[in-house]
Amino acid sequence: MKKMLFPLALATLLLNACAPKSNANKVAPAIPTDAQIEKNIQEWLKKMTLDEKVGQMLELNLDLMGSTQVVGEAKLDRNKLEQALRMFGQEKEAIDQVMAMTDEQIIAQFGGYGIDMFEGEVTREWRLNEAALDSMIGKWKIGSILNAPGKALSVENWQQIIPKIQELSMKYIGIPCIYGLDNNHGVTYVAGGTLFPQSINVAASFNTDLAFTSSEICAYESRTANCPWVYNPTIDLGRDPRWSRIWESYGEDPIVTSRMVEAAVRGYQGPDNNHIDGNHVATSVKHYFAYGAPWSGKDRTPAYVSPQMLREKYFAPFKAAIQAGAQTIMVNSASINGVPVHASYEYLTKWLKEDLNWDGMIITDWADINNLYQREKVAKDKKDAIRIAINAGIDMSMDPYSVDFCILLKELVEEGQVPMSRIDDAVSRILRLKYRLGLFDTPNTTAEEHPQFACAEFAEKALRAAEETEVLLKNEDNILPLAQGKRILVTGPNANQIRCLNGGWSYTWQGTDAAEFTAPYNTIYEAFCNKFGKQNVILEQGVTYDEKGAYWAENEPQIQKAVAAASRADVIVACIGENSYCETPGNLTDLTLSENQRNLVKALAKTGKPIILVLNEGRPRLLADIEPLAKAVVHIFLPGNYGADALANLVAGDANFSAKMPYTYPKEINSLINYDYKVSEQVGTMAGAYDYDAKVTQQWPFGFGLSYTTYNYSNLKAVKSEFKANDELSFSVDVTNTGSIAGKEAVLLYSSDLVASIVPDSRRLRAFQKIALQPGETKTVTFSLPASDLAFVGADGRWTLEAGEFAITVGNQAVTINATETKIWDTPNI
Asked: Which of 354, 500, 616, 626 is the most exposed place for a label (fewest CB within 10 A)?
């Protein structure tokens, strides 16, 4: 991916131009104002003490109110502990401090965290400390608690913990607490609940109904466990394949991400954003913004993004989320063009709150105010960091292990460094969230009110979702679907493990140590046994993951065993990719697929048996040297607990492929690029003294995906061949299923600005629809979009639609339309 590094002064100048004036008075409220809620808020503000107000602005981690304890005998393995600490990115100094402790001290302090640090197996149990809870709420008046104690808890456990929190909160403050969980692709932290495919899969479906349905079911099952707030969806654009959270995103395109988040917000929050019922939750859309564009490719590191791209692409999904009614926003942990987002009044207050007239609440990510002085070095100490962040627009601090925030913020107010008006604004937003959730009237939701938890209907929807999100990338000689009776070798490190299918945020943060929850579900090997008969399926993995090591660690390969097993097979299904990881522990130094896995495929290819590659990975790993060896390639991403069953159905032909790539799959490490690259990034050979070229290479392009049937596009029409900026543009195209089986097709409409005052993108996706077609059936697909959607952010930071021609393409069809006049907007958003 190419990036441009702007001098900070120039970047700041252009960013200011992007939002020349607040337009809150000109824009309708993102969420309509409810007079009764506003009256209630004002009444509370009048009677709350400063201690109560700053307490509402703090979110603490559940671990402060209890602990996970090792039950019974446990013997520390210091080698395992040191390896685990390194895996989680701890610096040498911190590791040395831990290793200097006695075994008893280490077990007491760290034994409950789920770290693999013992000889043999141990039993852990989380226990609520009611005295600590009473102190945190009674003394500090905290407004929110988050997180699970290391792994998923049962509904019964949650129904013991959260009602106790609410009881004390209502007793001491009269204001309900709001509990939040990272329930990210279903109920991550509720044992027995439904897990759907990860967001990158949902994006691959190009079907917003899946985003809605998976979010709605997640909300329902979250409320079963009495949790009213989820930190999801992640709508950072996944435009850098090195980034460890690609799989949490909806891919590289702002339109796909915008449409998906709009559907997800409706699913999570229901039809009325002022009155969210007991089957729905508030969202915390994250991580605002450009968090997925780290210059280094490493999580939580700085982004350097041109002001034009920042406004035009990275901001767009968050604007869509807010306009859809998102209640809360979680902030990017890092910086943009040298400005930490947690410290930016411009980004937090102007762009979000004022320009969009949004009355929702902004929360930090994990301890990120601390990072303003510890990592970013823009504050001298924690108190200074709190001053900067709160004045910038932060409303609630996720400061998981300390109440210092309350002490220091109170001092800042008393000293006049944070105005009382800012405190009242932040507390208003927090109270508004709690009123909209109905927590004042009904602090708890019960399991009995949610009898569909983990029902067969939800499981069926998760299975069908997985079928619609796995992409067929290659199918030479129509090797797929596989006929019954074939002898199949299932091999590779991802062949017999649920962990790989789910990825991170699955029962635990990293998706590790979750076997107790995944027993009811099938691995790829087990699903193939069920589909094709156990007698026809051979398991010999050849390469396996070291489950005691880092996510990339592999055991000593046994490739020759897999080669020997291939002699008994008609076809080889090689399941390769990545083990689960999440956030910073998922950072990598080499995007290339592991050498062991590539050597496995190369050795199997020498047997002459046809190979079907199954890619099961959270981000695209380079595999250009082995892709030619395969007859077929299926990318399943992270499809969840039912992903293997979905794959078996698709490979057998009992379901049809319909997904398409939600990002550009790179072919070479020096050709990391997105589909909407600038036209000058693709240069043919130039003759003369400098004989060079700049060619865009890719393994598979954005929007690519095959099916067992074929489709023909025809008769693309534009209702208007000429238009002005205020017009509505309408297009229609006929799509015919020319094959012999039913299928679904994602129909994508692109535009290309043929000549512009700044270098235009090669093309931009503007709209998409998913349609179902029977064999021989034709449907006319229509698209409508405002002409302003074709505008770009100009060199002066203003939205611009220039007179001239635009090419509109759908499939192999193209039509040209012409803007007859230029318009430049003075508002930051259009």
From this structure: 354
DSSP 261-281: HHHHHHHHH-S-TTS--TT--
What pLDDT, on the 0 to 100 scale, is given for residue 24? 46
Q: How confident is the model at residue 685 (pLDDT cuts 50, 70, 90)?
A: low
**What does the pLDDT read at residue 693?**
64
Specify which residues 230 forms β-bridges with: 181, 283
Token output for 511 = 């998706």
pLDDT > 60? residue 19: no
This prediction's pTM: 0.92
Evaluate whether 576 touches 492 at the Cβ level (below 8 Å): yes
The answer to whether the beta carbons of residues 433 and 363 sit under 8 Å apart is: no
CA atoms of 182 and 232, how far apart (whole Å): 7
- Measured distance CA(128)–CA(63) in Å, rounded: 9
Where do the DSSP E strands lie in 567-710?
Answer: 571-577, 611-616, 632-635, 683-686, 692-694
* Whole-number Å distance between alpha carbons of 617 and 500: 8
Encode burial over 721-738: b for 16+ CB neighbours within 10 A, e otherwise: eebebeeebebebbbbbe
Q: How many C-alpha atoms does 616 have within 13 Å on its Cβ side?
A: 33
Q: What is the three-class DSSP state of 807? A: strand
d(CA 54, CA 414): 12
Whole-angstrom distance, CA of residue 662 vs CA of residue 261: 15
Strands 488-491 and 571-577: parallel
Token duo for residue 747: 């129909």
d(CA 470, CA 253) in angstroms, rounded, equals: 18
Reduced to 3 states, what is the DSSP secondary structure of residue 185?
Answer: coil
Q: What is the Rg, in whole angstroms, of the alpha carbon atoms belonging to the chain?
A: 27
Per the listing, tokens 């090669």 go with 762
CA-based nearest residue to 125, from 162, 150, 155: 150
Cα angle 540-545-550, degrees, rounded to a multiple of 5: 180
What are the Cα distances from residue 566, in Å, to 15, 489, 534, 560, 570?
Answer: 59, 6, 16, 10, 8
Give dist(CA 830, CA 819) in Å, integer.
17
Contact of 250 with 215, CB cutoff 8 Å: no
- As a whole number of angstroms, the distance between CA 18 and CA 10 comes to 12
Average pLDDT over residues 582-607: 97
Give pLDDT tens digits for 786-827: 999 999 999 999 999 999 999 999 999 999 999 999 999 999
Handedness of CA 766, 769, 770, 774 (dihedral sign): negative
Strand arrangement of the beta sheet that strand 743-753 belongs to: 722-723, 813-819, 804-810, 743-753, 764-773
Provide the token pair at 598.
């590539």
How is 81-108 classified by DSSP, letter by letter? Answer: HHHHHHHTT--HHHHHHHHTS-HHHHHH
Residues labelled catalytic = 365
CB 327 within 8 A of CB 274: no
Give dist(CA 279, CA 758) in Å, integer: 48
Task: Tell me, rounded to whole angstroms, the distance of Cα 701 from its chain centroid.
Answer: 21
The greatest distance separating any two alpha carbons of the chain, rounded to the nearest whole angstrom, comes to: 82
| Mean pLDDT (the chain, rounded) | 94
The DSSP call for residue 557 is P
Tokens of 361: 């609440």
Asked if pLDDT for residue 3 goes beyond 70, the answer is no
Q: Are 656 and 708 in contact (CB under 8 A)?
A: yes
Q: Is 436 helix (H, G, I), strand (E, B) or coil?
A: helix
The DSSP line for 466-520 is HHTT-EEEEEGGG-PSPPTT--EEEESTTTT-HHHHH-SSBSBSSS-S-HHHHTT
How many alpha carbons fall within 13 Å on the CB side of residue 721?
Answer: 5
CA distance 181 to 62: 11
How close are the terminal C-alpha atoms of the chain, in Å?
28
> What is the C-alpha separation between 376 and 363, in angstroms, rounded?
18
